[in-house]
Design a protein that fits this description.
Elements: E1 3-4, E2 7-10, E3 13-15, E4 22-23, H1 26-49, H2 53-68, H3 77-86, H4 90-123, H5 128-149
Antiparallel strand pairs: 1-2, 2-3, 3-4
Helix pairs in contact: 1-4, 1-5, 2-4, 3-4, 4-5
Length: about 150
């Protein structure tokens, strides 16, 4: 039984010599938090991209190709449709596509980093207080990302 700074743990039974024994179902609570973390990220992806991932990736690729060509030559269809919808010239539309894509890529990297970190912390939590702290940190992070992406609520 490993020693945890005065606490001793085996499976999910926690004991402090000065307190009554308590039983916490940490594996179940941890699994629920891990599932919630994945579901929260899935909802963010759905709200930002929905079923348009292929469309957005194509627009990003065409915007990048057009910018890399010095904004010369034929305007790619995805750039042209964006320019026409906004009433912009092709260069402004391509730059906008690339700016939005860059912001989303950064958000994806941050979401992945935090998702993996918090899931691992939840799996290794040593008590319900620790799980609650991880959950609160995650909830704050999700709210901040939603606000940054302009998608609001859950």
């Amino acid at each position: 039984m490993p020693d945890r700074a005065g606490w001793q743990a085996q499976s999910t039974l926690y004991a402090d010599p000065g307190k009554l024994l308590t039983y916490e179902n940490l594996p179940e609570a941890s699994a629920e938090l891990v599932a919630r973390i994945d579901a929260d990220v899935d909802r963010i992806y759905d709200q930002v991209m929905g079923r348009r991932q292929a469309e957005y990736e194509r627009a990003e690729a065409e915007g990048r190709a057009y910018a890399d060509a010095g904004y010369t030559g034929p305007v790619p269809p995805m750039v042209q449709s964006h320019a026409a919808a906004k009433g912009w010239v092709a260069q402004v539309a391509a730059d906008d596509i690339l700016a939005v894509s860059a912001a989303w890529r950064t958000a994806q990297e941050t979401l992945r980093t935090q998702r993996l970190l918090r899931k691992e912390q939840a799996r290794n939590a040593l008590g319900s207080a620790s799980l609650k702290a991880i959950e609160a940190t995650w909830a704050g992070f999700v709210a901040a990302v939603r606000a940054q992406l302009g998608i609001g609520g859950a």
